[in-house]
Amino acid sequence: MFTKAYIPYKGYYSSPFARWQGSMANEHAIVLATDTTKRWLAEKKWDPMAFDYVFLGMTVGQPQWFYGSPWAAALIGAVSTPGVLLSQACTTSTTCIFQASMGVENGFFNNAYCLMTDRCSNGPHTIWPNPNGPGGEVISENWLMDNFGRDPWAQNAMIQTAENVSKEAGVTREECDAVALRRYEQYMDAAANDKAFKKRYMFPVEVKISKKKTILVEDDEGITPTTKDGLAGLRPVLPGGVHTFGTQTHPADGHCGVTVTTRENAKALSADPNIEVQVISYGFARAKKGFMAMAVVPAARMALEKANLSITDVKAIKTHNPFAANDIYMAKQFNIDVNGFNNFGSSLVYGHPQAPTAGRCIVEGIEEVAMAGGGYLLWAGCAAGDTGAAMVLKIG
Predict the structure, then answer these.
(1) What is the pLDDT of residues 327-366, one digit of tens each?
(2) pTM
(3) pLDDT tens readout for residues 30-47
(4) Cα separation of 312 and 337, whole Å?
(5) CATH homologous superfamily of 158-195+276-395
(6) How far apart are CA 360 and CA 362, in angstroms?
(7) In whole angstroms, what is the distance from residue 216 CA to residue 209 CA?
(8) Domain regions of the chain by residue span
(9) Which residues are 390's β-sheet partners?
């Protein structure tokens, strides 16, 4: 349980998430994310040299990411700041915030910056030597599609893990369709009143189309209008399965940043000194082979137990839900209403750029709890390899 790690209120942002092969498809993920961060810091009048460590979270390689974190730090203006590159699939943001919190808790850092970014579009293709191959043939890997499609340990695609959980837990097609429709409605709540909720945390991205033309990406791309009849008309992705393309997420591009610091620094940097955001606890887990969605539950239980809380004590719950079955299974295991969490959006609807996905969910949750007058936030989600992570924060 943490006692010293804080996030300044509004000391974070998320970019919009762009659809796969959309507006951010040709941008270098590190360069684009650091450009956005530099503009965000300038708007806040924050000195980037104040950061004493930078965590760069990424899962899809980009040219020269070997230099990852120190390069990113230099690009935002923190030219003497070191750091580390972290990759943990869709829980990467949580791990970055956890590691930053550990450093603050133990006095290693005073002011750490977590920058999470990924570009799923135009993913790299790696060529590996194959000395035993005839005629100099090589082994090739599509970083994105090959890994979405096959876990080398479980020997199945990610969607198969969701179907495995659905079959064992008795999750139905009708339940999946109903949850997907509910999550779309919740996302549309964030778009109400001229996108009032999204404007609480979202920062626009500048994309250079040419030397003379730059566009401003101010809102999510790739949101599919969803209706009950529309969902009912879709065929299952896998024969006999309960998930369609309407009840699973989609690859996307985007980034987010989160500052983790001491309580004193957080008060000084906060947009509202009366609102404190404290990192309380962290949890992790691994489910049995091929049952990824199940890992969310023990991870959440661990985070709650370390915070000395029950799930009924939290004001809001946010999840990374690549498949509708994730939320259904979690709701059944905790005996909570599946329609009562993920207010204002989730990755099921706005997409899944891996590294920043959990970060966006967490900052949305902070804003939701702040609007509600304070309380505890639980974030939980799954990641590749049948793993899961969770985090509890206190706002108010």
Answers:
(1) 999 999 999 999 999 999 999 999 999 999 999 999 999 9
(2) 0.97
(3) 999 999 999 999 999 999
(4) 11
(5) Thiolase/Chalcone synthase (3.40.47.10)
(6) 5
(7) 10
(8) 158-195+276-395
(9) 283, 380
